[in-house]
Amino acid sequence: MTLAAANLLLRAAQRFATIDFLYQLCALRHIHLLLTVILATVIIYLIRRPRAVYLVDYACFRTSNECRVPKASFFENARLSPFLRDSTIDFIARVLERSGLGEETCLPHAHHYEGQDCCLDEARAEAELVVFSSIDDLLAKTTFISLDAIDALITNCSLFCPVPCIADRIMNRYKLRRDIRIVNLSGMGCSAGVTAVGLARNILQVLPWGSHVLVVSTETLGPFYYKGNTRSMQLGNILFRMGGSAMLLSTCKNKARFKLTHVERTLVGADDGAYRCVYQEDDREGNIGLTLSKDLMAIAGDALKANITATGPLVLPTSELIKYLLFSAARKVLHRRNIRPYIPDFRMAFEHFCIHVGGPAVINSVQLGLGLSDEHVEPSRMTLHRFGNQSSASVWYELAYIEAKGRMRKGDRVWMIGFGAGYKCNTAVWVCTRPSVDAKGPWASCIHRYPVNV
């Protein structure tokens, strides 16, 4: 081989080596680019991923014998009222007998005597008694968290909204931080407690990790006693009772009792019938009261169905979802509307149910619609019997009942269902992370007597 040929081969080899190096460099750059994209995607996902929200603890207002109103006393006050006709008194007696209420439910002092008048100061005193007692009990349970650690406060009371509001009164009483976020909800009815929990979850998503939100749910009854003779307005007087709850939520898992996995809000207020089914207005005599429509149960059922449709795919096991899809497909393919739609078995998704204690009809309707056993609705019926309808706070008394009975286990799932004016059906799903070590709370003095036959 000549020298020229050797040089030519050498230059060709060098050229091929350079090209191979460039190919390797390009491949390396592609790998680096791919790794960079993957890393950036993971970082963005971790940043934008919703934070887990936990219930650190909760407390319920513990009623006292001073506020107790047996059914005989309630009826006697109605009988002596100068405003009520005999037909209205007979109606109250019939409904009271079938109300599911026991003899230990409580009403504010303004409802304990003939006349039923309540001034603004008495209404404030009632609200402060319930709210401050609940918060004090909660703070006693969470001594490891200081008041300065509370970053936001949410209160809900539908009927009573004084100036300053209840949230401001809490801030003044407990001397909370000046930069705390405050939200005061009103007029949202009995489902406002679940609404407040959902709002707390959203606020915790934008606050620094480890922040805390205090949620307080109650209803003030004193100034809203109905003095007229419209029967649909008298139902509120008969069923509603004193009650309140305080909950502390956080994004920190340390010492938390429950994990919030889902909140679903269903609003059907665009329909005029649903909008007016729970409506505060004047009767023909000018008395303000809360009207409950005769279509309330049907509207509540429709709202619950819509809520179940949204919640079911997130909580039900695959087997139940497949059954539901097969039944739905069969109805469409066969054009047989007489085939009843399949109702998924929610007992496979939840161990415990906290159904709003709107009254026996509400509890029975939900039990029938979801195919629940008497044990599943026992917390609702017993809460109605012992405490009455406590509006937005009632679901927390039901949760306390389950724990007082020692039925809560780690990993158990709880479904809270609330109905409210507007009309709304709001639900929350909790998973127990740390069962209660004691059964103290609103049921401490009477849990040994329950369940009772209603």
Question: Can you tell me about this structure?
Answer:
- The chain is built from 13 helices and eleven strands.
- With 454 residues, it is an alpha/beta fold.
- The chain has a nine-stranded mixed beta sheet, with helices on both faces. It has a two-stranded antiparallel sheet with strand order 7-8.
- The radius of gyration is 29 Å and the shape is globular.
Poorly predicted regions are none
Structural domain count: 1
Strand order across the biggest sheet?
Answer: 3-2-4-5-1-6-11-10-9
Described by the principal axes of the CA atoms, the overall outline is globular
Radius of gyration: 29 Å
How do the helices and strands follow one another from N- to C-terminus? Answer: HEHHHEHEHEHEEHEEHHEHHHEE
Ends apart, CA distance between termini? 111 Å
Percent of residues in helices: 40-55%
Number of helical segments? 13
Mean pLDDT: 88
**In CATH terms, what is the fold-level topology?**
Peroxisomal Thiolase, Chain A, domain 1
For the secondary structure, the number of strands is 11
Characteristics:
454 residues; alpha/beta; Peroxisomal Thiolase, Chain A, domain 1; 9-stranded mixed sheet; two-stranded antiparallel sheet; 17% strand
